[in-house]
Amino acid sequence: MLKLLIVLHHRFELWNAPDWFAQRLQGDFPQIEVVHFASYDGIEPHLRDAEIIVTWSLRCEQFTLAKQLRWIHSPAAAVHQFMFPELIQSDVILTNAREVHGPVVAEHVIALVLALAKQIPQAVRWQQKHTWGQEIMWHGHPRPREIAGATLGLVGLGSIGREVAKRAAGLGMRIIATRENPEKGRPDGVEQVYASTEINTLLELSDYVVLAAPTTPATTGLINAKRLAHMKPDAFLINVGRGPLVDEAALAVALRSKKIGGAALDVFGQEPLPAESPLWDLENLLLTPHTAGLTDRLWERHYALISENLRRYRAHQPLLALVDKTKGY
After folding, report:
1. Which residue is catalytic, options 146, 191, 271, 283?
2. In angstroms, rounded to a whole number, what is the distance separating the alpha carbons of residues 61 and 24?
3. Whole-model pTM?
4. I need a labelling partner for 137 at 20 to 30 A (CA). Which of 38, 80, 118, 167 fits?
């Protein structure tokens, strides 16, 4: 009998599969043995004969044990944790949850754009001080503004980027983007697509720069001091991709010196963000604690994707959300 092993252990409870998840899978697929572990303790015997594994990560030595393994599914969009040579060079299929997270992360991006444009964090600070901050906010840098007509630059046109583009275009924003293969065309709402090598052009034109790219050797440290220098002095940087995309020290310098208008980060190089990090105290930086993907519908969405892919797998049909292991996304 085909075995599906679910091993999901995280300090944050939402990232752990609820009990009903494995139970429903077993009920819907009685011909599959579904085994669910809430920790990695004791999984070795099941690794040896599991054909499918749903997990956040797998160490190389664990992968070596899994002789029957044919498919790994990551409930995260990021898969850099699986990019070791033995897995990349194998014929094991890797899928991820990029389509699960796209819509809700895109909503978070729009919330950040509006919060930055309308200076909501500043208003909250003045409220806490019982201060009527109307004139102060108007004479600040940058001023409150409209987003209709503003240019939003997307770095990455995966599931998150495409969903952001649709929503931002609906609000009257002009959308430009970079992607590794611009010949793939322009998704709905995107006016212009540049090659990844033309990112400086995107930075120079954008009022809001949204990072929604995967972590790869090419994107690690993508936004550094030189790149920040290409941004407009009143532009905002938003990162909902992964923390390593941004050189946080360089961003802190740019924000302190007001070289850019401000930033909003949902992801960080180290999570949780250490209490001693200087990022906490930057007034022109809005921090959200990796909450862009939070929704009470999360595991229903996971279930829809995994169950559909299980049907496809058994029918020898192409799977959804396939990862190109040579590219890392």
Report:
1. 271
2. 30
3. 0.94
4. 167
DSSP letter for each residue of 22-78: HHHHHHH-TTEEEEEESSSTT-HHHHTT-SEEEES---HHHHHH-TT--EEE-SSS-
Kindly state whether residues 59 and 142 are assigned to the same domain: no
Same domain, 144 and 273: yes
Decide if 300 is catalytic. no
> Do residues 106 and 163 make contact, with C-beta atoms less than 8 angstroms apart?
yes
In the annotation, is 271 catalytic?
yes
Out of 24, 145, 256, 290, pick the active-site residue.
Answer: 290
Which of 46, 174, 242, 302 is catalytic? The answer is: 242
pLDDT, tens digit (0-9, with 9 covering 90-100), for 60-84:
999 999 999 999 999 999 899 999 9
Same-domain status, 10 and 62: yes
Number of domains in the chain: 2
290 in active site: yes
